[in-house]
Structures are given as structure tokens and as C-alpha cells.
DNA sequence: TTAATAGTGTCTCTTAGACACTATTAT
DNA sequence: ATAATAGTGTCTAAGAGACACTATTAA
């Protein structure tokens, strides 16, 4: 649509060029905080840097935005290259634009956070990760016990966590961290590790079932020598808004 | 702090250069949706484009990010150049990174929204706007009656509005649209034009006063031939969080 | 005195949150 | 039978929202 206008206008008047190479052009990077739930705790994926700056330090997966890709595409590409994962919930977080973020020079970073369920990750991860650019190592870290990380990536993780904690309160984002079928106990544990708080079992189940977004699959999950749990599925394909209560919400 | 590390590391190992000029570097712009309340309606400031692309069309104030300024600084600078305003509430919104946003070529746009009160704007505006780059015209448009705008600026305004509507529900952002001293009726009208809904007077006043964030200035505002209204002031210097109720908020 | 806005309380209903026991299965 | 987790209901208190009249001033 904009291209249509452009074509139209360019016939009558020349379109001025953008700032030329070498003047006000910038290196733009993407950095992604990928979360999952594993061993009853919320984890974020870090990669070990092989080259300076910060060689040997842990950092978020990410890289430079190329010339022929959108910023979102760059984020997906980097995630795919460094983890092999292709289908994730991905959401833009914030753009960090200070001058001294990177010791190499001025780099503007568009940060994202992403959610995967642990099972899906284990299946796909590394099966298609790029050989040549393979990082020295990738590891999940509990968000409560992060190592020292490179650049301002600590700030990005903090900001992603804050967003995630807000988001699970009024959207169905938490479901992105679970497999397609899950028990209510698993769902509750997901909320608990995200929020960092224990929740009341009866109140939790009451609220979740009231929302009408869960489908009883009629299947059971046998996990040990105890009563098997019902498996539920989320009814929506996408992350949806569950409510929007505020101080003043006359909608 | 990162500079400290950089200095340390550069002594032992060379820091690789960023992508060179002319390869994967990008033009980065800022676009700002500046809101105010005027004549009982929520307005956004648009500027008339003097040069292609989209000559004669309305667009959001904005421009390219320079080499020696942070992205936030660029947003403030553009706002100052095009409106003369220096002190506003400014918050980053979203980064639009698609390839075909601009007919001139690939431009990544970091969008912001800003809030000013009409009185402050009338005093400062244009008193210090840059002469040379002065746009053909700037005008306030009611958000309900926007003209056709250039680029994807419609999307930016929509996104800014959505953010503003959410934000006033759980923070004190709406106060940024009012002068230092205001009546409760003015505050209510601000919420009404932002939300696009009438609100109940008694419930509104009850809730606002309960929050404990308003100081009675003991002054009155005489406005016509009716009972003068109390003038209140907001007790906080900054925008604060008023509440954070969600589905599950055990904090 | 009148026009015009400021200012004020109560009641109902919904919802949040505290709280403890029974059910079902594998071993 | 026992260990281990699944699953279930009630009560209370707080808050949201509906609703209408009196107060005060300038003109």
C-alpha cells in the first residue's frame, strides 16, 4: 500500500535519498530472552560468547539485523541459528538505544522475549542449529541464579521477566510454556514459578475453569503411584486477553 | 561500567569491529505521537510534510537518529525542533522494523508517545522551534478524526492510544495531560476523553480520593457563574503505579 | 432568583481470598 | 494399606458500580 503511493509519487517528484552510507546509519542488533519451565523453575537460555567483547561470558542469543530482513525476522533467525527452535511465542520488548551499550561502538538493540515449552525444545533443539556459527555452548539458567552476563543483558532479562509477570495476569501467555495437553497442577506450577509465589490450589482451579478457556481432553496423565490427573488443552490457538481490570475500566 | 570492561578486555584481546560502513547498517528514525487535551477532546499533533515522500500529507513529528545521540535523545530533540516543547512525559512504544515502511528505502522506526498539558504547550510552543527546519505547519487533530497520514503512522497512533488507555488504568499517566493544579471535574474529563466513555461522577471522585495521591491546594477555581471548584495537585513528581490487579496477583 | 457546575452516601452484588478434607491410583 | 497427588465448596470481606439530590457561587 505504501509502495503504491511511492510509485505514484515518484513519477511526478523525485524522492530524496536516505542518509548516505557512512553518515547516520546504525548497527542494529536483536537480543532474545528465551524462557522455559524445567525442573519446577523458570529458566532463561544463555549462550557462551566465543569471541570478544566479553569472551567466555554468558549472553542472550542475538545478533545483527541484516539488510534484507525485518527486525522480527532477524530475531526469529537468530533464535533458530542458536537453538534450532523455529516455533516460539515471540514478542518485542524494548529498544535499547544508549550510546555506550557495546564496547565495539554504537549498537542499537531491539530486545525480545520468547516462550517455549520444555518438551518441544528438547525435541527440536540443535537438530538444525547452524554448524559454523554454533556458539561455544548454550545453557538454561534459573532466573533466580543468573551468572554475570555480557553487555546490558541483565537489564533485558529483568525487563522481560517483568513483562512476563504482568502478561500472565491478563493474557493466556503462560500456556506457551506448557505442552498442548497439561494438568491443572502443571498449569498452577507454571504460574507459581513465573510469579515466584505459591498459589492456593482451590482458588486457582476455580478461576481457571471459570474462564472457559480450558477443554477437558478426557485423557489422564499417570505420573507415579497416585491418582492420575485430567489433561486439559487450551481452547485458543493464539495468546488471548483474559481480562482487563483497572482502576477505571468502563468497557 | 561496560566501558570499564571494554577497556580491560581490549588490553588482552582485540575487539572485533562492527559491520563496516555500507554493509548491514540501517537508517533509524524516531516518530512521536504527542497527545494533549483541548476542547474536551484528546488530540494528537501532526505536521504537514513539505518534501517527498508524501508531500503535503500529515505525519507524526520525527526524524532520523543521529550518530552521537541516544535514541531517546533523538526523540526529545525532534520534539523540541518541531514543537518547541522540552519537558514532556515521553515513553517508548514499539519499534517498527518491516522492510517496506518507507518508499525511500529501509528505515527502522522507534516510536514514542508523549503527553503534555495544553497550557504548558501554548506557552512554550514555537517560541524556540528551529527556524530552518520549521515544518510547513503543525496542527492538533482529534484522535477520532484523523486525516490520512503518511507512512504507517496511523498504526503508530493506534498503538499509542491503546497504550495510553491501558496506562491510565493502572498508573497516574493521565495527570501528565493536566496542569499542576486541576479540579476533579477536569481530571474526570481527562479520563473520559482518553477512554472515550462517560464515567460516574460519584464513583470517580470516591476512587480518586481513596488513592491518596491528591493534595487539596485549598485554592478554588472560578470558571463561570457557578460554584467554584477545589483545586487539587498530584502529590508525586513522577508517573507512579496505582495498582496492579490481575487474574492472579498474589503480591 | 436563576443558571450552572461542585460536591456528597448508600446499597447491592460480585469477586477475591482464606481455609481442609475426600478421591483415586500405583506400589 | 499406604504413599502420593488429584480434586472439591463455603464463608467472609472488600470493592465495583448503580443511583439523585443539595451546595455554592456569579450574574
Secondary-structure arrangement, i.e. CATH architecture of the largest domain in chain A: Alpha-Beta Complex
Shape of chain A: elongated
| Percentage of β-strand residues of chain A | 25-35%
Q: Quickly count the domains of chain A.
A: 2
Rg of chain A, alpha carbons = 22 Å
Oligomer: homodimer
Main interface pair?
A-B, 77 and 76 residues
CATH class category of the largest domain in chain A = Alpha Beta
Detail the poorly predicted runs of chain A: 1-12, 127-134
Mean pLDDT over the residues of chain A: 87
Please explain how this structure is put together.
Chain A is α+β, with helices and mostly antiparallel strands and 251 residues long. Chain A folds into 2 domains: 27-167, Nucleoside Triphosphate Pyrophosphohydrolase (Alpha-Beta Complex), CATH 3.90.79.10; 173-244, Arc Repressor Mutant, subunit A (Orthogonal Bundle). Chain A has helices spanning 2-12, 71-83, 118-124, 153-170, 184-195, 201-210; strands at residues 25-38, 41-48, 58-59, 62-64, 89-96, 107-115, 138-142, 181-182, 214-221, 229-234. In chain A, a hairpin with a 2-residue loop joins strand 1 (25-38) and strand 2. The longest helix of chain A is centred in the middle third of the chain and has 18 residues, at 153-170. Residues 1-12 and 127-134 of chain A have low confidence and may be disordered. Strand 1 of chain A pairs antiparallel with strand 1 (25-38) of chain B, so a sheet runs across the interface.
Amino acid at each position: 500500500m505504501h509502495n503504491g503511493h511511492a510509485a505514484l509519487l515518484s513519477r511526478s517528484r523525485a524522492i530524496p535519498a536516505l542518509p548516505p552510507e557512512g553518515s547516520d546509519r546504525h548497527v542494529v542488533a536483536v537480543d532474545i530472552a528465551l524462557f522455559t519451565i524445567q525442573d519446577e523453575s523458570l529458566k532463561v537460555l544463555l549462550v557462551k560468547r566465543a569471541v570478544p567483547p566479553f569472551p567466555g561470558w554468558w549472553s542472550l542469543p542475538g545478533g545483527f539485523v541484516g539488510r534484507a530482513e525485518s527486525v522480527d525476522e532477524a530475531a526469529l533467525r537468530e533464535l533458530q541459528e542458536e537453538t534450532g527452535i523455529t516455533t516460539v511465542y515471540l514478542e518485542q520488548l524494548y529498544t535499547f538505544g544508549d550510546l555506550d551499550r557495546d564496547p565495539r561502538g554504537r549498537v542499537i538493540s531491539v530486545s525480545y522475549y520468547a516462550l517455549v515449552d520444555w518438551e518441544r525444545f528438547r525435541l527440536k533443539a540443535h537438530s538444525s542449529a547452524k554448524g559454523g556459527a554454533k556458539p561455544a555452548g548454550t545453557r538454561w539458567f534459573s532466573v533466580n541464579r543468573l551468572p554475570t552476563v555480557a553487555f546490558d543483558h541483565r537489564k533485558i532479562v529483568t525487563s522481560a521477566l517483568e513483562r512476563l509477570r504482568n502478561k500472565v495476569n491478563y493474557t493466556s501467555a503462560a500456556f506457551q510454556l506448557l505442552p498442548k495437553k497439561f494438568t491443572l497442577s502443571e498449569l498452577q506450577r507454571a504460574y507459581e514459578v513465573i510469579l515466584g509465589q505459591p498459589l492456593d490450589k482451590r482458588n486457582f482451579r476455580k478461576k481457571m475453569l471459570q474462564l472457559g478457556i480450558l477443554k477437558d481432553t478426557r485423557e489422564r496423565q499417570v505420573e507415579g503411584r497416585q491418582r492420575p490427573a485430567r489433561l486439559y488443552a487450551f481452547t485458543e490457538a493464539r495468546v488471548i486477553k483474559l481480562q482487563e481490570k483497572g482502576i477505571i475500566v468502563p468497557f
